[in-house]
Amino acid sequence: MKHSGTANASAQVSLGRRMYSLGKKLVRERQVKTVLARFDPDQKEWVFLTENEEELVRRPPKALDVQTLTGLAPLAIQPVQPVQLTLPFLVA
Description:
By secondary structure, this protein is α+β, with helices and mostly antiparallel strands. It has one domain: SH3 type barrels (Roll), CATH 2.30.30. The protein has helices at about 25-30, 65-70, and strands spanning about 1-5, 10-15, 20, 35-40, 45-50, 55-60. The strands form two sheets. It has a four-stranded antiparallel sheet, with no helix packed on it.
């Protein structure tokens, strides 16, 4: 998954309805205007990159849960404990 966005004056980018800070000093020093965002599933982090795909910073995801991703509410009723069924004894 890859997204592109523009850093605002506060050095923040928006992913969905969530704001992520990149760091004013870093954005100013690197003269960053446009950033790319990728999700690293192994580290479970957003990776923010320059247009040349040089890594800037990593940030943990905000509100990344089943309901936010799918729009589906979690099950209100939890499934019951599984029961081991016995197989009938077969006689030859």
